[in-house]
Every structure is written in structure tokens, then in C-alpha cells.
Design brief:
Layout lengths: L19 H31 L6 E4 L2 H4 L4 H12 L7 E4 L4 H39 L21 H19 L2 H19 L10 H23 L3 H21 L7 H22 L14 H9 L4 H4 L5 H8 L11 H29 L6 H7 L3 H22 L9 H15 L3 H17 L3 H18 L2 H12 L7 H14 L11 E2 L10 E6 L3 E3 L4 E8 L11 E8 L6 E5 L3 H4 L3 E9 L5 E5 L8 E8 L5 E14 L2 E7 L13 E5 L4 E4 L7 E5 L5 E6 L4 E2 L3 E10 L5 E9 L8 E6 L2 E3 L2 E10 L4 E11 L3 E13 H9 L12 E13 L2 E10 L25 E11 L5 E10 L5 E6 L13 E2 L4 E10 L16 E10 L5 E10 L10 E7 L2 E3 L4 E9 L8 E6 L6 E4 L3 E3 L8 E10 L3 E3 L3 E6 L2 H5 L4 H6 L1 E2 L2 E3 L19 E4 L11 E4 L1
Parallel strand pairs: 1-2, 3-13, 5-16, 8-10, 9-11, 18-26, 27-46, 35-45, 36-47
Antiparallel strand pairs: 4-6, 6-11, 7-8, 7-12, 12-13, 12-16, 14-15, 17-19, 19-24, 20-23, 20-25, 21-22, 21-24, 25-26, 27-28, 28-32, 29-31, 29-33, 30-32, 33-34, 35-37, 37-41, 38-40, 38-43, 39-41, 42-47, 43-44
Length: about 1150
């Protein structure tokens, strides 16, 4: 309502005083208008109070009135006069924006929430008391006749009152926002209603109360479904709705309203439509339709179950476990779909409803007696087709909407087409043929493109019926000819009438007699099965290529009377088409397979041939011929054009030369004999075309080389190319070095200053006149490892005449497959061997010089070389010529590569100089050797598993291969590194040094050096010289004694003089060295051994030969190394005493 506002008054001058008469008049007018407003409010309040509704008044006023100081007085007067409550009963609102108006409405709702809550709560209590009072009463003992007594309505039973009160309490709870309470009351009311419907005594069918109860049951079902959807319980909502439909469907059968009645299907359609509208309204707000797609695939779940992974372990993501369980299976009665699905179901039910109604109407008309049923009379007034169109249209729009958002299901994109087809069918049944044709045109495009023949056949039938009703002759001809291609799955009666219908249309005059009607079958199925087969996939220039074109008529459709006047066969560019004109030949029409020979097809002349262009059911016509070309190209049959002429009708039907009506094309066949028909299968993929190529050039390629190749050698391969053709050729060459599976192999090819490790492409050899030859030398360098190398040599020859012609002739096809180019491929395998077999033998010796002590300042020098633990290594290297060819060694040197672990002391060959003995020619099997001495530094080599020490040098051998003609090949260099070193280490050792020869009665010195090389343990050493009267020496020196305690790294020397008294090989006196502390510290030996001590090994420097520590983690793969046989170090060699 609007609060009255007195019209504004503009004074003549700002200095004018207020007019008291006008002010008095304004107050009187405002009081009169306020009294009228109060009376209207009081009248409305009286009517609302009678219905138990509380009235709230909102007055609209301008901002000027809001600023008037008399506003409060006026509002108080209006509230008192109208009898409004002082609390939340009167509001004043000025004209505001839309956002401010929303805020006001929200504030108004908040202000009225508590009074409304109290209102509905009090009503619920009152209704609950009534329900309890009726529930406590006993069933009245009045008769319950099956039919009402006159017009007097029977009183409600307690069950009816229970339904009434439960429904009221559910409504009040819903108004209060208590959805769970409302749901419980609705469910109780629904269950009571079901009990009442189940008993004809309580609720007799076909009565007014029975009809009202049915409507009430449907309303309660909607309420329950809506409340389930409020809580996003989609499965429960759909399940309850389906249960309601199934339950009342069972009731309907008992009431005589089964599936054969239109009332049943009317009820089903109404239920589906109610659910669809409910879902559609919900999706406009916050309802989200679930998408029923599995989160995890079945294969992923199977793999997880095979690995023993539990569902809880797989559910790492939130909700994954529950989704995985749901994806194992979905109950259709609980899978809620989008509203379009239920609109579609409502439309289908309405179609059945219409069919049942028409059947009942037909029975009524046939019997001539009208039905007195009010339901049947009302059904006659229903526009069934209008309802069906409305429902299908809504379903179509919603299916398109959800198909666009649900791209994961490809089938959803085709469902709108099916619904559109049902819309078109409905338009056809309702007589709106133009609308039906528009839908058929759009749907047929997709069905043709996706080859849905089973869907397209009934569509074409109905489309043709629409064209007949519209009188569109051209469209009827197009549809009939298209239907001739779909001869499978259609009744014979329909197929026999297609040709007759087409001939009947030809009797009428077309709308444009001067124009040719072109019927395009590019996407639909053709009338004929067509197939083109060329006998050879390739032919040379001017060589004829045989081909066969087969046209097979449909086996279930008659086309023998169709007026085909001509058939034009079009070839690829450069070949003129052939035209066949029809001539009658009844004998030829009866043959199942006919053969028409075309002979040689000329490329520059258009031919016309006469032939019988009539086909019986399932018969075939095979057109055979020969075609040739003077230029390289790919030749095909591009198109077939039938011309059908009858009266004023001229119809052109273009066909694809390779097209079948079946889903799987039949295998290609070549007709070998016509009577009886005998075919030869053609087993190749590209059988519908032939390539015309240049003849191959005559070139001779010869390869010469002296295998095997040596490693590190530039191996020459001579390639000789001879032009044996009659024309000049332009030659290019490609060389491909195939990858090898040999480890550490690095290969390189070189040709004409171009080098590559993989491929050299496009090497220009030059032009060769007929009979001329050219020689190219290809060099192959192999390094790393021996083995076979594979080389592909490709020689391309191109005629110089064709090259210049292709540059000047624009019509010549220049694709790589039809150029005058011949490619000749040669593959050569080059075995590669090592020119020298390199073997080494390494022995280790301890240093003889006295080692400095721990406190020696020389050990702190940066240049000091400490070899106390490493000692020396003697490396013997043997080189053997392994290859089958003689080699000339030009130089053999050992290059020093000293490092912090080892250094080269001396060698039998000098670095950087060539040895005259080594530098010479060597035959296969010849050997040469070198011995070098290496000093090894002390380091972390005490551990047997430590890394080996790299060799401090490498051998460089410069050599040449000696060819069979006594010429020398190119200079090559082979590198052989010294083997890695891993010397053994000592703990406590005694080194014996004595001369190997002596003279009788002349003293010789004998020195015994005791070294403690243990890093942390001292030694308590005792020495004892045991003499025997049978000894050949007189000894002067210590017999038994104790050496001072040897600290780690310490060394002590003991000396004796030996005077030989016998000649010959005599033994040195026996010396025993023991350590009396080592066993106790070592742990694990008996106490008795501690008293005697542990023997210390004595090493004779004259025969010392120690092997290296075995290496397991790192091996020298390039060097074949042999360790020296170990010699028992405790053995002392004899001395040769000469007279």
C-alpha cells in the first residue's frame, strides 16, 4: 500500500509566509486519507483473522514524506485505527534500488520468522491433539456399503482422519523449515492412504472420495520426492517415485484399469511428467543431477585386487572408495536421470495412451454404440498429438543440453536425433507434413553420414509418405531412388512397389522439365554395388593395364524396368570418358553375370558403346578393358554417371566406382570366365588403381674391398657405377651406416670430404653417358670393438631428358612415386677384426732400498715418492699379428702417462723413437714384445676391494696394411693402454738379500731386512740362525737375538758374512724369524703359540714374483692380462759356488 502524500506547493516568492489555510487543508486531507487506509487495513485484517493468518502491512512512501516530522503521528494513528499489533505489523519503505529492496525483504523475513514459527507451531500442536483424539476413538459401527447412499457423503473413518491430520502436520512442519519432520508425516500419511486403497470396504473404487484420494496420493508422492531431492538423496527420491507408480499400477489392475486402457497410460504419463517438471524446476536453482560414470575402470580394480590392495588402500582420494564400490553396479531404479528422460517417457506413455484410445474409439464406431463413461468423453476432448509434441520437444531440448555437457558418453549425442525422429513422426500423424519434412532432412544427414541404415529405412518411408501428401514430385523421386539402395530388412511387398511407384511418378510432368534432376548418393547407400579391379598394381609407360568394372544390382529389389538411357564412365585426368547407350537385349538380361569388353581405351578420344543397361535381381555386369598412359601417373575410375530418361523426366545419378551396400565390403575378385562365372581373388589392398611408372634404368654397381677390416683403420670400399642404359643418367648416391649392437663401437664413414657416423645423403656423382663408368671410394673407420658392420649403398639414377622435360611441362606429375628415377640398393657386410692381439703379464716386487722412518723429514716433501707399500711392477707386453693381412709397422712407442698413483721407470723401448727391430713387415702370427718397470706409490690400496691403479702409459703402434699388389694402405694408429695395477700389501715381512754366485773361500754378505708395514701394530721380532755341520758355509754373525720393537713403518737390517767351503749349488743356512706379539693381538690363537711366536715369512729378492690382488669390481676389458704364477715366498734359492 502507498501512504498518501499531499501535492507540493511552490510559493511565488521565497519571502512569502506559510499559508495557514493551506496547512489546515493538508492536515484534513491527510487525516481523511489515513482513515480510509486504516479502514481498508482493518477489513483485510478481519478476513485474515478468520483464516488464522497474521497480517503485516508495508507502506510505500517518498523520501520527502519520510523526512516529515508528522510521519510518526500518522503511523501511530493508522496502527490504532486499523487494530494492528505493535510488533512487526507495520513497515514503511521508500522507493529504493533492487539490491536495497532485497535487503529489506530479507530483513522483513527475519522480523516475521519468529511470529510465523510460533503460529505454525501452535497449529501443529492443535492438529496433533485432534489426531490423537481421533486415534483413541473406536471404529464407528455404521454400515459401509460399496456404493454411496444417494448424495449423502459418508463420514470419514479414523484412517481418513489420520491422513488428514498427518498431511496438515507435514505442511506446517514444511512451512517451519523442518524438512525431516515433514517427510516423516508425509510418509505416514502415504502409508495410511495405501492401506485405505488396499481395502474396497474402506475406500470403494470409482467414488468421488476415491478419486480425491488418488489425487492426494499423487500430491503426497510429489512432496516426498521433493523433500528427498532437497537433501540430495537422488536414489531415494527416484526409488520412492517408481515404487509409487508400480504400487498404484497394481491397484489400477484390480480396479479394472490395466495396461489395455487409456486411463492407465494417462496416469503413467502424468507421473513421469510430474517428476520431469519437478527436476526441471530443481535444476534451475541448486539441484545437481548425478552423472553415472565409473570413477575407476574395471581393469584398474581387477589389477588392484590381483595385487592384494584393499579398497581402503585404493581410496586415497576423498570418496574414491565409495565411488569405486558404486561403479561396480548401479540399480536402474535408483539412478536418477536428467528431466529430459522423464519427459521422453511421458511422451511414450502418451503415445500408448493415444493408441489405446483409438482402439477403444474404433470398437465404439464399429459397434455403433456410444460409451457413457465420463472418462471416455473427456478423453475425446484431449489433443493427444499436441501433448506428445510438447513432451517430445521438451525432452529434445533437455537431451541436447545434457548431451553437450556430458561429452564422456558418445551415445547421448544420438539420443536427441531419435527424439527428433519421434517429433517428425508425430508431425506426420498430426498432418503437419511440412514440419515433418524439415525434421527428416536434418536427421537424415546424420544417419547417412554415420551409416545407420536400420534407422534410416523407416525414416525414408515416412518421409516419402509426407512428400506424397505435399505433392512434391522431385522429392518423391529422390526418396524412391534412395530407398532402392536399402533392400535389406524391408518386407518384399514394400520393395516390389518401389519401382512401380517410381514409374508412376514419371507419368506426371516435372516442375522443371528443362533441368536435369541430379540425385547425389555420396553419403547414402547406392543402387548398385560397384567395384573396380586392376590386374596389376604397376605398369610401365605405354604398357596396357587391364581393368574390370563390376555393377551388381540389388538382390531383393526389382529395377529391371527402370529407364536407364546411358552410363558414363569417367577416368582420371588425361583419359576421356566412355559412354554406354542402352539397347534392348532380352537374352542378355537373363544372365546372372554379363561381360562387356571395351578393348583399348583411348586417352584422347571419347567413345560411345552400345550395351544393355537393364539389370535383373542380383545380376552383375562386368565392363573389361585395357588402358595405358604415355606419362607417369596414377590411373583410376573417378565416377559413374547414370542418366535415366522417361518422358519429360531427366534424372542423373552419379555413383562412386568403389561402393557397396553391405557393412563389410566383399573381397576383390577378377572375372576369369563368364559362362559359367569363375572368379580369381585379388589379394592386395590397393586394387582399385594402377600406377604408371618409368621403366627402370640399367645401371651396374660393383663393390670391391679387401675384408676383413682392421680396427682403427680407414678401410677403403671401392664403388664402381656403370651406365648400361641407352640414355644419359644423372647419378647421386646415399650411404647409410646401420647401427650396431656392439658395445663401445664407434664407426665413421667418409665419402668425398663428407664424414658422418650414420648417413651421408645426396652425394652428387655426376652425369654418365651411355657406357661410361665412375669410381668412388668409401672409407670406413671402425673403433671400439670387433664385429660386423653393415653398410647400405643407395644409387639413384635419373634421366637428364626427363628432368628437363618435367621442369618445362606443367602437366607432368612430379610426385616421387612417378619420377623417372631408379634406386638401386646394395648392402655390404664388413667383418672387423683386431690387427694385434695384446697380452700382458704383471708381477710385483718389493722395493730393496731402505725405507725412511716415521720421523724422516724427507717424507714431508711434496716431490717425495713413497713406494714402500706399492713397490714395483714389471709388465711384460706381447703383441701378436692376428689379422690375415701383412702389416708394416712404422713406429712402436710407449708414451708415458705418469700420475700420482704410478710412474714409468724404464722400458725396453725408448719413448718417441722407433726401434729398427720392431719397425718392419710382419706376417700373420708374428709377435713382438716389450717389458717395462713401474713404480707404484703407497696409497689406499690395502683393501682388496679398492679400485685398481690406472696404468702410467700406453703403447702407440703406427702401421699400414700391405695390400695384395704390394701397395701399402693408409696409415693407422692403434693404442694399447698399460693394464691397471693392484699390488699386494704386507704386514710384517723379512727380505733376504744375497748374491746368487760366490767363489770358494771368499766371503759374501747376506742381509736380512725386517719391515713392519702394518699401519697400527708394532712387532716384537726374534731372529735365529740355525747352523748345521753339513752346511756349505761358515757363518760369521748373530746366531740368536731379539730385534728392537718395530713400530708401524719401521725397518731393521741384520747382516752376516758367509764363507763357502763347497762348490756347486749350495743352500743358505736356515734363518727363523718369529713375532711374539702378533698372535695375541690378532685374537683367536691359543696361548701356547704366544710363547713361541708366529713365524714371519722370509722373501728372497732373487726369486721374488708376486701376483696382483684379484679384481672383481673393475676389469680391464681392452687388455688381456695374465697374472704371474705365485712362488712360495718362504723358499730360499741356492747359491752357485764356483772354484
Amino acid at each position: 500500500m502507498r501512504l498518501y502524500e499531499y501535492p507540493p506547493h511552490t510559493p511565488r516568492s521565497p519571502l512569502d509566509a506559510p499559508d495557514p489555510d493551506r496547512e489546515r487543508e493538508r492536515e484534513q486531507e491527510e487525516r481523511r486519507r489515513d482513515t480510509e487506509l486504516s479502514a481498508e487495513i482493518a477489513h483485510r485484517k478481519k478476513s485474515t483473522n478468520e483464516r488464522g493468518i497474521k497480517l503485516t502491512v508495508v507502506l510505500m512512501a517518498s523520501r520527502k514524506v519520510l523526512d516529515d516530522p508528522s510521519l510518526d503521528t500518522r503511523l501511530t494513528y493508522i496502527r490504532r485505527q486499523s487494530g494492528l499489533d505493535s510488533r512487526a505489523a507495520l513497515f514503511v519503505l521508500s522507493p529504493v534500488s533492487q539490491s536495497e529492496l532485497g535487503d529489506f525483504v530479507q530483513s522483513l523475513q527475519q522480523a516475521l520468522y519468529e511470529p510465523a514459527l510460533e503460529y505454525y507451531t501452535s497449529h501443529s500442536k492443535r492438529v496433533r491433539r485432534k489426531r490423537n483424539r481421533h486415534a483413541s476413538q473406536q471404529v464407528p459401527a455404521y454400515p459401509n456399503p460399496l456404493s454411496p447412499l444417494g448424495n449423502t457423503a459418508r463420514p470419514l473413518r479414523p484412517e481418513g482422519w489420520t491422513v488428514r491430520y498427518e498431511y496438515k502436520m507435514a505442511c506446517f512442519a514444511e512451512f517451519r523449515g523442518e524438512d525431516e519432520v515433514a517427510l516423516k508425516h508425509y510418509q505416514d500419511a502415504y502409508e495410511t492412504l495405501v492401506i485405505m486403497f488396499g481395502s474396497p470396504v474402506i475406500l470403494p473404487p470409482r467414488t468421488k472420495r476415491w478419486a480425491e484420494a488418488k489425487v492426494l496420493a499423487d500430491c503426497i508422492n510429489v512432496k516426498i520426492t521433493k523433500l528427498y531431492l532437497y537433501n540430495n538423496e537422488h536414489a531415494l527420491a527416484l526409488s520412492h517415485h517408481i515404487t509409487h507408480m508400480r504400487k498404484f499400477g497394481d491397484f489400477s489392475r484390480g480396479w479394472g484399469i490395466g495396461e489395455d486402457t487409456f486411463e492407465y497410460w494417462s496416469s503413467m504419463a502424468r507421473q513421469h511428467r510430474i517428476l520431469a517438471e519437478l527436476l526441471e524446476q530443481g535444476t534451475r536453482s541448486t539441484l545437481v543431477i548425478p552423472v553415472h560414470v565409473p570413477v575407476v575402470t574395471s581393469s584398474a580394480l581387477a589389477n588392484a585386487s590381483e595385487k592384494g590392495i584393499s579398497l581402503a588402500a585404493r581410496g586415497a582420494l576423498p570418496g574414491l572408495e565409495l565411488d569405486a564400490m558404486r561403479s561396480l553396479g548401479i540399480n536402474p531404479s535408483q539412478a536418477l536421470q536428467h528431466p529430459g528422460y522423464y519427459y521422453y517417457m511421458a511422451a511414450r506413455c502418451t503415445e500408448v495412451r493415444r493408441a489405446r484410445f483409438l482402439a477403444t474409439l474404433e470398437i465404439e464406431e464399429s459397434q455403433g454404440v456410444g460409451s457413457t463413461s465420463p472418462g471416455f468423453a473427456n478423453e475425446k476432448k484431449v489433443e493427444h498429438l499436441v501433448i506428445i509434441l510438447e513432451l517430445y520437444t521438451k525432452a529434445y531440448e533437455l537431451f541436447k543440453k545434457y548431451a553437450a555437457t556430458s561429452s564422456q558418453d558418445q551415445s547421448l549425442g544420438r539420443l536427441p536425433l531419435w527424439i527428433a525422429y519421434r517429433i517428425a513422426q508425430t508431425y506426420y500423424e498430426s498432418g503437419k507434413f511440412n514440419m515433418a519434412v524439415r525434421f527428416f532432412e536434418r536427421i537424415a544427414k546424420t544417419y547417412r553420414r554415420e551409416q545407420w541404415g536400420s534407422m534410416l529405412k523407416p525414416l525414408l518411408t515416412t518421409w516419402y509418405a509426407c512428400a506424397q501428401q505435399l505433392g512434391d514430385m522431385e522429392l518423391s523421386v529422390k526418396l524412391l531412388i534412395e530407398r532402392l539402395g536399402y533392400d535389406e530388412g524391408i518386407e518384399d511387398a514394400d520393395l516390389e512397389g518401389l519401382q512401380d511407384d517410381l514409374l508412376a511418378i514419371f507419368k506426371y510432368r516435372p516442375s522443371s522439365p528443362d533441368e536435369v534432376l541430379v540425385i547425389d548418393h555420396s553419403e547414402s547407400q547406392p543402387i548398385f554395388d560397384t567395384s573396380v579391379v586392376f590386374w596389376s598394381p604397376e605398369v610401365k609407360i605405354n604398357e596396357p593395364a587391364a581393368f574390370q568394372l563390376t555393377l551388381t544390382a540389388p538382390s531383393n529389389t526389382k529395377i529391371d524396368s527402370l529407364p536407364f538411357k546411358s552410363l558414363e564412365i569417367q577416368f582420371s585426368e588425361g583419359v576421356e570418358p566412355i559412354t554406354f547407350t542402352h539397347v534392348n537385349d532380352d537374352s542378355a538380361t537373363k544372365l546372372s553375370v554379363r561381360r562387356i569388353d571395351l578393348g583399348d581405351v583411348a586417352t584422347r578420344e571419347q567413345r560411345t558403346v552400345e550395351a544393355n543397361l537393364r539389370w535383373s535381381e542380383g545380376s552383375s555386369v562386368v565392363f573389361t578393358g585395357m588402358i595405358s598412359s604415355s606419362i607417369p601417373r596414377t590411373m583410376i575410375i573417378t565416377q559413374l554417371r547414370f542418366l535415366m530418361v522417361d518422358g519429360a523426366w531427366k534424372i542423373e545419378i552419379p555413383l562412386d566406382p568403389c561402393r557397396t551396400r553391405s557393412a563389410l565390403p566383399p573381397p576383390a575378385r577378377w572375372l576369369a570366365a563368364a559362362e559359367p562365372p569363375r572368379f580369381i581373388p585379388v589379394k592386395r589392398e590397393e586394387f582399385s588403381s594402377v600406377r604408371v611408372l618409368y621403366p627402370p634404368h640399367s645401371t651396374v654397381i660393383s663393390l670391391s674391398h679387401q675384408s676383413p677390416a682392421y680396427l682403427n683403420e680407414e678401410y677403403p670400399i671401392t664403388v664402381e657405377i656403370t651406365n648400361s642404359d641407352a640414355k644419359e643418367l644423372d647419378i647421386t648416391m646415399d650411404v647409410l651406416l646401420q647401427p650396431t649392437e656392439i658395445d663401445y663401437a664407434v664407426n665413421t664413414i667418409t665419402l668425398d670430404n663428407e664424414q658422418s657416423s650414420a648417413m651421408i645423403k645426396g652425394v652428387v656423382v655426376g652425369r654418365l653417358a651411355p657406357g661410361a663408368s665412375v669410381v668412388k671410394t668409401l672409407y670406413l673407420l671402425n673403433t671400439g670393438a670387433i664385429g660386423d658392420r653393415m653398410i647400405d649403398i643407395s644409387v639413384q639414377s635419373r634421366s637428364t631428358a626427363s628432368a628437363s622435360q618435367s621442369e618445362n611441362d606443367d602437366d607432368t606429375v612430379s610426385s616421387p612415386g612417378v619420377l623417372d628415377v631408379t634406386d638401386v640398393l646394395r648392402t655390404v657386410s664388413i667383418p672387423t677384426v683386431d690387427p694385434f692381439n695384446f697380452k700382458t703379464n704383471v708381477v710385483y716386487r718389493r722395493p730393496l732400498r731402505q725405507q725412511p722412518g716415521l720421523g724422516d723429514l724427507r717424507t714431508f716433501d711434496k716431490e717425495y715418492w713413497d713406494d714402500a707399500d706399492g713397490g714395483e711392477a714389471f709388465i711384460s707386453s706381447v703383441f701378436k699379428c692376428e689379422g690375415p693381412w701383412n702389416v708394416k709397422i712404422e713406429s712402436f712407442i710407449l708414451r708415458k702417462m705418469d700420475h700420482e698413483g704410478a710412474k714409468l721407470l724404464e722400458s725396453s723401448i725408448a719413448e718417441g723413437t722407433a726401434d729398427d727391430v720392431v719397425s718392419s713387415e710382419y706376417l700373420p702370427g708374428d709377435e713382438f714384445a716389450d717389458v717395462c718397470r713401474v713404480s707404484i706409490a703407497s696409497g689406499g690400496n690395502r683393501d682388496a676391494g679398492s679400485l685398481p691403479i690406472p696404468g702410467p702409459g700406453e703403447y702407440l703402434i703406427t702401421w699400414r696394411r700391405i695390400l695384395p699388389d704390394e701397395k701399402h694402405g693408409s696409415t693407422s694408429t692403434s693404442v694399447f693402454p698399460l693394464p691397471s695395477l693392484h699390488p699386494p700389501v704386507d704386514d710384517l715381512v723379512a727380505i733376504l738379500d744375497v748374491a746368487p754366485r760366490a767363489k770358494l773361500h771368499q766371503p759374501i754378505p747376506l742381509t736380512l731386512s725386517i719391515r713392519n708395514r702394518h699401519p697400527s701394530r708394532s712387532a716384537n721380532v726374534f731372529v735365529q740362525l740355525e747352523t748345521d755341520p753339513a752346511d756349505a758355509f761358515v757363518v760369521a754373525g748373530l746366531r740368536t737375538g731379539r730385534v728392537p720393537v718395530l713400530l708401524p713403518g719401521g725397518e731393521e737390517k741384520l747382516a752376516w758374512n758367509l764363507i763357502p767351503v763347497e762348490c756347486g749349488y749350495v743352500k743358505v743356512p736356515r734363518i727363523r724369524v718369529t713375532n711374539r706379539r702378533s698372535s695375541g693381538n690378532a685374537g683367536g690363537t691359543d696361548a701356547g703359540i704366544d710363547n713361541e711366536g708366529v713365524p714371519v715369512k722370509i722373501v728372497d729378492t732373487r726369486i721374488e714374483q708376486r701376483p696382483g690382488v684379484p679384481i672383481t669390481s673393475v676389469q680391464d676389458e681392452d687388455v688381456e692380462s695374465e697374472n704371474a704364477q705365485p712362488i712360495e715366498e718362504s723358499r730360499i734359492a741356492s747359491i752357485l759356488v764356483l772354484p
